[in-house]
Specification:
Structural class: mainly alpha
Number of strands: 2
Shape: globular
Strand content: under 5%
CATH topology: Glycerol uptake facilitator protein
Largest sheet: 2 strands, antiparallel
Order of helices and strands: HHHHHHHHHHHHEE
CATH architecture: Up-down Bundle
Number of helices: 12
CATH class: Mainly Alpha
CATH superfamily: Glycerol uptake facilitator protein
């Protein structure tokens, strides 16, 4: 499921980027403003993320879609080591499958500049700007996910908050780093393009940013503040994680959130 989720996200990213940025696209030709095109891509990608998080597959897997998210929840003690390993593996494989499917469908429109496999490379402020950007967006994303998913009032809307941040990041941060925030997403594009420019940055910075957010969250609210690794726990889908919610019917759902979440 994690493979399918990231694969679909990469297909969406590739298709919408080609639609708005490929020079021969009628949409590209109709919208002269690069900022407006990037804003519309951000909306498309944010809505894609929201749809995936609230999809049946997203509800089942927890909708990590990102090795940095999985490894952060592993660090928090919510994901078993074997599950973390397979999540990361299949996230990478799913991302690759998505990229190669777009290559097969769109060919030069996707593989040639300016789209260039939607590979993540440093932008207008160089390596340092990309590093700061990736650290910041990963930190804010994880802090938002932890706060909303463990708060009674906001837990149902965690996916909306995450998708909203994706919209903002594509518009505001992509010029600095290409908007990676996801090592599997960056790996998929880099592998297909055979462009490994500063690839280590796109692996380490998102992970460091999310781990830092998790440490801060636990420091402020305590080691038991994180209940589960699912972004959306308002579901009767089986939970495979070390879950702190009250399961009325054993391990298979019937989750009661009211007595476990922060007010």
């Amino acid at each position: 499921m994690e493979a399918a989720l990231l694969g679909i996200f990469m297909i969406s990213a590739g298709v919408f980027t080609c639609l708005f940025e490929y020079p021969n696209s009628l949409v590209h030709q109709a919208i002269a403003s690069a900022d407006l095109r990037r804003f519309l891509i951000g909306i498309a990608m944010g809505l894609t993320a929201i749809a995936l998080i609230y999809s049946p597959w997203g509800k089942q897997s927890g909708a990590h879609i990102n090795p940095a998210v999985t490894l952060t929840f592993y660090r928090l003690g919510k994901v078993k080591s074997k599950d973390a390993l397979f999540y990361v593996l299949f996230q990478c494989l799913g991302g690759l499958a998505g990229v190669y499917l777009v290559v097969a469908l769109l060919r030069d429109a996707f593989t040639q500049p300016p789209v260039s496999y939607i590979v993540t490379v440093p932008g207008i402020r160089g390596w340092l700007g990309a590093l700061v950007g990736e650290l910041a967006i990963a930190f804010i994303m994880m802090l938002t996910v932890l706060y909303t998913s463990n708060h009674k009032k906001f837990s149902r809307y965690t996916g909306l908050f995450a998708g909203g941040l994706v919209m903002l990041y594509v518009f505001l941060e992509a010029p600095f780093s290409g908007f990676g925030m996801n090592p599997a997403r960056s790996f998929a594009s880099a592998f297909a393009a055979q462009n490994w420019t500063d690839f280590g940055l796109y692996v380490l910075a998102p992970l460091a940013g999310m781990l830092a957010a998790a440490e801060l969250y636990q420091f402020l609210l305590g080691p038991r503040a994180v209940k589960c690794a699912k972004l959306n726990h308002h579901t009767h889908k089986r939970c495979i994680f070390r879950c702190g919610y009250n399961h009325k019917n054993g391990h298979r759902g019937g989750v009661n959130l009211s007595d476990r979440l922060q007010q």
